[in-house]
Here is the input.
Amino acid sequence: MVSQLNIPHFHSLDKASKSTRLTNNYYSPNELKVIKMAESDQYKMQNPLTQYPAGEFPKQQQSSPGLQSEMGPVPDCGESTYRGSGRLTGRKALITGGDSGIGRAVAIAFAREGADIALSYHPDEQKDADQVAELIKEAGRNLVMLPGDLSDESVNIKTVENALNQLGGLDILAIVAGKQTAVDDIAELTTEQFRKTFETNVFSLFWITKAAVPHMPAGASIITTSSIQAYQPSPSLLDYASTKAAILTYTRALAKQVISKGIRVNSVAPGPIWTALQVTGGQPVEKLPHFGSQTPMGRAGQPAELAPVYVYLASQESSYVTAEVHGVTGGNHLG
Here is the structure.
């Protein structure tokens, strides 16, 4: 069996090599699911209902923050499918939560679009981060690895300082890192969890943008990550949904404050996306098999399906877009 890092190279093999590897069970069942999901690049027209499997996810659980590489199936972050076209050539991006899930997809896409990357991630996710690092290097981009727990104010400040110093500047800030833990009853929701969720999702957003904005030039872009939970909160995600609503308001207020500096600020609001958040307590284990099936599309989204939105908001193509929220929800409406 090969490592997850070798999966992205499957589609570069000739037909005979592909056939040999598949016939000889060269890949694990989880890796085969990734291969099946990644049959073309993001530009090929296809039916979105069948673009990714809509079947049941197996029940599974990891301790937080979790590793994407140990999920089944492993989320598709565009390792094999994202094809860049130079839309971010010469740009310098700091991405939080860049080791897995949506952050990983964003890092891969930004690098393949020509940006140098500062990758922020939790130290416990080093294994996943190392995989992303290899993909960024394969894209020929400069990379800065920045492990740290962003619920600590000093880590946010140091993360920005290191990104600025080692990249030689910063003109894209994509804030994706987050904490989500489902609790059905408010009586069971501890003050510790409530505080930690806000520190990770909201306080960190304040600390990192406060540190970065003074150094960002006109034309720079800040992209936050809200959620459909800000509009349609699940009862078991009381603290998480509240933080996502706060992110939404913070984004709009900050956008109006910094547009005078020529800096745009927008947000992406995902729906149910298959990431490590879901298997580390973000969803009750018994609900995982049908995760995402209630959307009009009848399936969960994959991180790769969000990356193009972040690229658009980071690029000059969205020059007249600020203080906006872009939903990627599988058909569930925002508002």
